[in-house]
Amino acid sequence: MILSVYQLGGEQSEVVIDGNNLMFRDPYTQTITTIEGLKLNKGGVIKEHPDLEYDSEWRKKAIERLKEHLKKMESELIKLDYVKKELTKFGWKPLYFQKVGFRPQKFKN
Fold first, then answer.
1. Residue 52's CB: how many other CB atoms inside 10 A?
2. pTM for this model (two decimals)
3. pLDDT of 109 higher than 80
């Protein structure tokens, strides 16, 4: 299990990678959201998956594709790198990550 922390302006968010599970945690309210609770922008989904443009179940199918993509990745560190890359595209600043049983480490740029 790996916990990583990201910041966007004054807001912080934590991402927990546990095997094939991806969870998002708000450190202020202590609420945990699974990958199904992601807020998706339809325009962004269509940009990645043009075939979902006229599909009424675009959100569900996009989340399933993301889950399958994550399952193909071999390790939690590779998944961490993928999440970091995706979040930095949208302005989130990676602060640090922590593997279970180890001290927190700053992300290397």
1. 18
2. 0.85
3. no
